[in-house]
């Protein structure tokens, strides 16, 4: 009996150590990724700053002042763009930290139908070469939750669909009531998600297409934020994808559990 209890205790210690090691590895990877993402815009800012200063110092006469102004203006625009990118990354990291601590959500009654339609209206101008559609009921689907954060869920899912699909793709946003849950879906008929990365889609700094995400200024945190917000509402998010048929499904309880 004592031996069995000791073996059970040792098994528990082993599993606890393994879980701790996994968490530490995830934290190290997260810190490394965050450092890399911050270093990239910082390097650009430094480079463009040096370029501007060099142009100003080496302009021998006023004949080249026009070229210097044009070069400096271009550099300052790039500095501003990279600063904004870094700001978005830091804001996303801070939001995730607050969500991890169980803070940041402010509850109220939300018309999920109206919120989804507003999100779709915001998405249309960002990608006029996509076809945007909605499928919502006549009656409002309401939930109790944080309206601002749920709007971010919709915006991030639509931005993800836009970023990782080519021109001409149809993106459909739907809302429905299913028992005690409200269900929000974002479907696209794009190329689909590589099965090799599907299980890591909601990990922080995960990207379905890293080169495209960098071109569009993505932080790689959009889906991680969606997952954190949805789980903060006691909901779930899943994805199903084959070429020509990708659907992200969010399920949120209409009333939060007491």
Summing up helix and strand content along with how strands pair, one would put the structural category as: alpha+beta
- In the sheet with the most strands, the strands line up as 2-4-5-7-6
CATH architecture of the largest domain: 2-Layer Sandwich
- The helix content, as a percent range, equals 55-70%
CATH superfamily of the largest domain: Histidine kinase-like ATPase, C-terminal domain
The total number of structural domains is: 2
Name of the level-1 CATH class of the largest domain: Alpha Beta
Subunit arrangement of the protein: single chain
- What composes the largest sheet? 5 strands, mixed
Q: What is the helix/strand order? A: HHEHEEHEEHHHEE
Please provide the count of β strands: 7
Please tally the helical runs, counting DSSP H or I stretches of 4 or more residues: 7
Unreliable segments of 5+ consecutive residues: 209-217
Alpha carbon gap, first and last residue: 41 Å
User: What form results from the Cα inertia axes?
Assistant: globular
Round the Cα radius of gyration to an integer and report it.
23 Å
Per CATH, what is the topology of the largest domain? Heat Shock Protein 90
Short description:
With 258 residues, the protein is of the alpha+beta class.
Q: What are the salient characteristics of this protein?
A:
7 helices, two-stranded antiparallel ribbon, 5-stranded mixed sheet, Helix Hairpins, 2 domains, globular, alpha+beta, 258 residues, Heat Shock Protein 90
């Amino acid at each position: 009996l004592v031996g069995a209890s000791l073996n059970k205790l040792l098994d528990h210690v082993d599993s606890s150590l393994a879980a701790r090691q996994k968490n530490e590895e995830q934290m190290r990877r997260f810190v490394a990724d965050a450092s890399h993402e911050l270093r990239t815009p910082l390097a650009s800012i430094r480079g463009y700053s040096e370029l501007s200063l060099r142009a100003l110092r080496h302009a021998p006469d006023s004949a080249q002042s026009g070229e210097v102004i044009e070069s400096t203006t271009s550099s300052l625009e790039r500095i501003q763009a990279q600063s904004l990118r870094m700001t978005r990354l830091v804001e996303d990291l801070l939001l995730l930290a607050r969500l991890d601590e169980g803070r940041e959500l402010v509850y109220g009654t939300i018309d999920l139908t109206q919120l989804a339609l507003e999100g779709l209206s915001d998405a249309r101008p960002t990608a006029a070469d996509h076809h945007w559609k909605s499928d919502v009921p006549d009656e409002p689907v309401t939930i109790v939750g944080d309206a601002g954060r749920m709007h971010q869920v919709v915006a991030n899912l639509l931005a993800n669909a836009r970023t990782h699909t080519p021109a001409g793709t149809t993106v459909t946003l739907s809302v429905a009531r299913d028992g005690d849950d409200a269900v929000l879906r974002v479907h696209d008929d794009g190329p689909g998600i590589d099965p090799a990365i599907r299980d890591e889609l909601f990990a922080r700094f995960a990207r379905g297409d890293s080169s495209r995400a960098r071109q569009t200024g993505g932080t790689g945190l959009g889906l991680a934020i969606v997952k954190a917000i949805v789980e903060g509402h006691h909901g779930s998010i899943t994805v199903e994808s084959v070429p020509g048929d990708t659907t992200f499904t969010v399920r949120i309880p209409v009333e939060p559990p007491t």
